[in-house]
Amino acid sequence: QDLQIISTDENQVFVAVQEWYQTDTYNLYQSDPQGVYYSILLENVRSTKQPEENVLIDILEVRGVKGVFLANQKIDGKVTTLITYNKGRDWDFLNPPDIDMNGKPTNCKPPDCYLHLHLRWADNPYVSGTVHTKDTAPGLIMGAGNLGSQLVEYKEEMYITSDCGNTWRQVFEEEHHILYLDHGGVIVAIKDTSIPLKILKFSIDEGQTWSTHNFTSTSVFVDGLLSEPGDETLVMTVFGHISYRSDWELVKVDFRPSFPRECTDEDYESWDLTNLQGDRCIMGQQRSFRKRKISSWCIKGKSFTSALTSKVCECVNTDFLCDYGFERSAPLKSESSKCFADFWFNPEAPPEDCVLGQAYTSSTGYRKVVSNVCEGGVDLQQNLAHHMCPLIAPKGLQISIREGSLAVRPGEDITFIVRQEQGDVLSTKYQVDLGDGFKAIYVNLTMTGEPIRHRYENPGIYRVSVMAENVAGRDEALLFVQVNSPLQALNLEVVPIIGRNQEVNLTAIILPKNPNLTVFYWWIGNNLQPLLTLESFLVTKFAETGDIRVTVQVSCGSSMLQDSKVVHVFDNFHVLPLKFTKHLDMYNPNIPEWREDIGRVVTQLLAKETSIPEETLMTVVKPGLPTAADLHVLLPANQPKKKRSITSDKTIAAIKQALNAHNISFFLRGGYWVLVTLADASSDSQRIGDGSGYWAIVILFVICLVAVGAFILYKFKRQ
Length: 719
Description:
This is VPS10 domain-containing receptor SorCS2. It is a single-pass type I membrane protein. Residues 430-490 form the PKD domain. Belongs to the VPS10-related sortilin family. SORCS subfamily. InterPro entries: Ig-like_fold, PKD_dom, PKD_dom_sf, Sortilin_C, Sortilin_N, VPS10, VPS10-sortilin. The protein is mainly β. It has six domains: 3-174, no CATH class; 265-312, Ribbon (Complement Module, domain 1), CATH 2.10.70; 317-385, Wheat Germ Agglutinin (Isolectin 2), domain 1 (2-Layer Sandwich), CATH 3.30.60.270; 395-483, Sandwich (Immunoglobulin-like); 489-570, Immunoglobulin-like; 573-678. The strands form 15 sheets. Strands 50, 51, 52, 53, 54 and 55 form a six-stranded antiparallel β-sheet that branches. Strands 1-2-3-4-5 form a five-stranded antiparallel β-sheet, with no helix packed on it. A hairpin with a 6-residue loop joins β51 and β52. The termini are close together.
């Protein structure tokens, strides 16, 4: 539904993506070094809508220490704060302090109680947000939040850490605006309030003790805090107004006279960066930083540098995260867990740009965290499988008009663009027929991106086709161009398998609905003469077996669009009802694309388990919940009827055996394995053909109608 760029630092992109099922949360994804392939890091990060449709994502990069982020996760209405030290590979809760600012026990013990912080940006650019960090003050984080099982909106107590989130201390009971001076050597705090003030607080020992200072004799409404240029400055300005009708008052505060001298090497000590588990090796190195001793009263100055030493570590499992197409079974746990391939991803499949004769490697499921500098040790990327690029048949062939409209005027110049999602392009020939007598053969058409320019002189409907063919196979794309006709968006819903001479309902779904002005054009097969209706559906029959392409165009005013599906028509086939374990229902968006993916996965698993040819099986997932499906078992048409019956009985028996033995399952996000079984193990399959099987056809017909509303809501919301 939406995508927000979080960060593009260090040759890597962080994006927050709002998916179809989310309303006030986003999922956080991280790219590979090229910014092309993305892997999920954290689900359900809280978001907030601001005026003018601006969206704020509750994630904050901690300045001063690379790889550290804070994020607020919202699950079942409960918001909790998490921290990562390795760019999102592992996430942990914030440890609560043992005592409060008054020295009393907090009685906040994990796992029932943690520290949670508000991660809001300030509306006023001249004050700090709810969490304050700085590049020249590594490890120093100050933020507003609360202790408890979740973040509470109205609680804004102030907490500080000087060791990058390992230990926290409470410093104030109310939210304050924060300003760091002299590389964090002086922390200035002014209460966030609507009443006038004349007192500010400051600390020179990383918030352990606080002093007060009267910065003005007359109370002012504080509008903002500014420091002079340079991280080493000790001069700041408080600006505000005495009354709502007065001009701005600017008050300069200079802390330089408070310090008798500049710091020397003896005034500093080192501190080692560790994560919450105490590991010093973070992002592949041990890092030490300098900080001023608590007892030293001196100015750090312009020459101060915080970085002290760094030492490269040997690689361990936590230096690697899941590669594209893989997910961890326990994404919130800090301990190492295995990466599993998602059900939709085939790690051994050749890349889209794989050229015959070249080699490619398949992923082990892991890749090194970007910017991690570890060396030697464990290498989860080793032992990559090397494959030679096969000759791949063209697949996913598409033809479109660059100008975007399928309705053009006579004599108008149009440009056809041909694209191919998969398959070899060097050895593929493309036969183009523009429908008005123009025919041509191209080589490397999709690789060179060469456009096809054309002009239709006469009004009419033109069937434009592209046939891509090489030794491994072929693919075809169709486009119907209407001259003097407009363009509209739609989705064609049709049962994928049907019996010969059985009625089938073809339904076109459009938004917005406008039945009084909409005309529907239906093409069955390669017939250039369409059927025209004013209704959004057409009931028809197929007298011949085979794959029949159905194409529909809808015209409304000046807009037009088309959709095309293939219907498989058979004389004989069996139908077996299937069911899934309940975990699948949590991830079922009830849209056609998802159902097609799940159906394809189940078909492939059954074919592999039973050695039944994959082309004789088709799984059709039904709309709605609970998730269920029908397995269509196609019968060989070139055998005698008696022998065909024996073969089909053996096939059905093999499928039932595999399903009843619980051999068909696949891995799902969240650590679940989805098991596929018969909906009713005691029932026989339904056979379609030879005049029987009417009820199976009716079932599929109803499924088609139910799917209509679910898909339309998803599709147009996504756009």
